[in-house]
Design brief:
The protein has 310 residues and is mainly α. The chain has one domain: Rhodopsin 7-helix transmembrane proteins (Rhopdopsin 7-helix transmembrane proteins). The protein is 72% helix and 3% strand. A three-stranded mixed sheet has the order 2-1-3. Helix 1 runs antiparallel to helix 2 and helix 4 runs antiparallel to helix 6. The chain is globular and about 70 Å long. Belongs to the G-protein coupled receptor 1 family. Its main location: membrane. This is Olfactory receptor.
C-alpha cells in the first residue's frame, strides 16, 4: 500500500490471529474463561469487602478499588477481542478504537498509581503500627484513591485529547485491540510530540511509582528485620507478599511493553505482552489475595455459612 495515500480512515481492521483460524478458536476459549474468571473473581472480592465489616480497613479499601479497576480494565477491550474472534473481518470504527485506546491507557495508569498507594499503606502499617489508624484515616484513604483516579485522567486522557492523531490510508492494526503503540504506528502526522509525551508519561506513571514502591519496601524490610518476634515477621511478610506479587506481574509486563525499544521485530512480542498485561494480573489478583489472606478466606467462609475458627 502506498504510504502517501491520503484517504481518510473511518475504521480499522484488527488483525489479531485471524490468519490462524485454529489458533484463534483456542485463543477464544482461553480468553473467555479468563474474562469470566476475572469478572467473577473480582466481583466476589468486592462483595466480600462490602459484606464483612472486618474487611472495612484501609488495606481492603484499596483492594476494592483495585478489583473494580480490574473489572473495568478487562471489560474495556476483552469483549471486543472475543467478538472479533467470531467474525470474518474484525473491524472497529475510528471513534471506538480511540475510545478503547484512551480507556486502556487511563485504567492502566490508575492501576500503577493504586499499587503505589497500596505500598505506602503497607509501609505505614508495618513501620508505624501504633499510629496506623490515625495516619491512614478514612478521609486520607478516600483522598489517595481519588487522587489516583484523577491524576491518571490528567496524565493520559487530557494529553491524548489535546494531541489528536491523523490517519490516512493504512487501517490494519497488527494487534488484538486498539493498544496505544499499535495505533501510533498507523498515524500519518508528526509523532514527535506524542513520543515526547509518551516518554514523559511513562516516567511519571511507571518509573516514578515503581521507584516509590521499591523505596517503601526498603523501609518495610528494615522494619521487619527489627522485629524480635518470628511470628510478627511472618505476618508482615504474609501481608506484603500478595501485593508484591501483583506489583511484579503488573509492572513487569508494563515496563517490558512501554519502556523497551520498539522495532519491527517487536510487534508480535508486543501482542503477547499486551495480552499478558491485560489478562493475567486482573485474573490472578483475586486468587493471589484470597489464597494468601486469612481475612478474605474467613469472610468467604462466613458468607458460605461455615464457622470461622480463626
Amino acid at each position: 500500500m502506498d504510504g502517501r495515500n491520503d484517504t481518510a480512515v473511518t475504521y480499522f481492521i484488527l488483525l489479531g490471529l485471524s490468519e490462524y483460524p485454529r489458533a484463534q478458536a483456542i485463543f477464544f476459549c482461553l480468553l473467555l474463561v479468563s474474562y469470566l474468571t476475572t469478572v467473577l473473581g473480582n466481583s466476589l472480592i468486592l462483595f466480600l469487602i462490602h459484606y464483612d465489616s472486618r474487611l472495612h480497613t484501609p488495606m481492603y479499601f484499596f483492594l476494592s478499588n483495585l478489583s473494580f479497576l480490574d473489572i473495568c480494565y478487562t471489560s474495556s477491550s476483552l469483549p471486543q477481542v472475543l467478538v472479533n474472534c467470531l467474525v470474518r473481518i474484525p473491524a472497529i470504527s475510528l471513534g471506538q478504537c480511540l475510545a478503547q485506546m484512551c480507556a486502556g491507557l487511563y485504567l492502566g495508569v490508575v492501576e500503577c498509581l493504586l499499587l503505589a498507594v497500596m505500598a505506602y499503606d503497607r509501609c505505614v502499617a508495618i513501620g508505624d503500627p501504633l499510629r496506623y489508624p490515625v495516619r491512614m484515616s478514612a478521609q486520607l484513604c478516600a483522598q489517595l484513591a481519588v487522587a489516583s483516579w484523577v491524576s491518571a485522567f490528567l496524565l493520559t486522557v487530557i494529553p491524548t485529547l489535546t494531541t489528536p492523531l491523523e490517519f490516512c490510508g493504512h487501517h490494519i492494526i497488527n494487534h488484538f485491540s486498539c493498544e496505544l503503540l499499535a495505533v501510533l504506528k498507523l498515524a500519518c502526522n508528526d509523532l514527535r510530540l506524542n513520543e515526547l509525551f509518551m516518554m514523559a508519561s511513562s516516567s511519571l506513571t511507571l518509573l516514578a511509582p515503581f521507584a516509590f514502591i521499591l523505596a517503601s519496601y526498603g523501609r518495610i524490610l528494615r522494619a521487619v528485620l527489627k522485629m524480635r518476634s518470628a511470628e510478627g515477621r511472618k505476618k508482615a511478610f504474609s501481608t506484603c507478599s500478595s501485593h508484591l506479587t501483583v506489583v511484579i506481574l503488573s509492572y513487569g509486563t508494563a515496563i517490558s511493553m512501554y519502556m523497551m525499544p520498539q522495532d519491527k521485530a517487536s510487534r508480535d512480542r508486543d501482542k503477547i505482552i499486551s495480552i499478558l498485561y491485560g489478562v493475567l494480573p486482573p485474573m490472578l489478583n483475586p486468587l493471589i489475595y484470597s489464597l494468601r489472606n486469612k481475612d478474605v478466606k474467613g469472610a468467604l467462609k462466613k458468607l458460605m455459612g461455615k464457622k470461622d475458627v480463626s
